[in-house]
Structure prediction request, 352 residues.
Amino acid sequence: MSFFNRISGKKKSAQNAKERLQLVLTHDRTDMTPAALEALKDELIEVISRHIEIDPDAVNIDVAREGREQRLIADIPLKAKTRQRGR
Amino acid sequence: MSAKIVTVTSGKGGVGKTTAIASLGIALAARGQKVVCIDGDIGLRNLDVIMGLENRIVYDIVDIVEGRCRLRQAMIRDKRLPGLFLIPAAQTRDKMAVSPSDMIRLGDELREEVDWVLIDSPAGIERGFKNAIAPADRILVLTNPEISAVRDADRVIGILEAEEKGTPSLILNRVNYEMVKKQEMLSPEDVLDLLAIDLIGIVPEDKSVLIAANQGAPIALDKESRAGQAFRNIAGRLLGEDVPYMDLEEQGGLWKRISKLAGRG
Prediction:
């Protein structure tokens, strides 16, 4: 977005089209809807939580584009253990 | 002779495939190449009217496939350029009358006759599309900078990759530079970034395309038309030439960026 658009707070329609297409193409290419991604995230959290302590709210799962390839990126911060150790 | 078979496809209808095929045919023939254009849209034929050859049709592609005529009898010779021919689609049949293997056989026969076979694919991703891509050595995906057309183009590219047809090249049609400048239209950079395939041509929006269609004279015949020039440039690139992208003065900055982008592929 240009500086002008940023300060006026109005997004030009081409930018809007591009952002919408980015999302739609990711779903078309992977056959994965936002709902399916959400379900995957919940299950991942459940499985990982059985083995290691994580903060479910901090988990971020996304599909990244690299050329025509799609990549599932999971960012799962682990909970610090230091406090428990000090107890 | 061993022709190269090039198919133009798009997924979405009405984006300019037929205009592109007619103009690429004209432009290649004007360069002394022997070219046959095939209308792959059985039941909805249109390449004949865009090329201005509709009054000369006797036989069509289904007649060839079903053995009612010889190949050469169905090749309509263009009167403007000696090396240009059209094989029209059948109008009263449907797409199931021809199979992908029929198309491969037809393509192989034509390879011996001409330098280029250009196939106009129908819209969609069904039988007519499958027929059109079956014999192709090279596929050009054509789209507009419209959200629906870009989405369909991406789908088609995905199918072509899944069917191991290789990565197609992109023709971006009907670009309105005024609107791109105002950021009210996806720019060529945006579309290339989204689709992530190589570019072979950018065609500016041009009112003279409609006028040319009215007259049955493909736009590549019009020396004044920018769209016509863009198609002549694509023809040059198909011939393996390193044709620079058009530099439209009022769009200098944008064009320089596009030229750089195009240089990567």
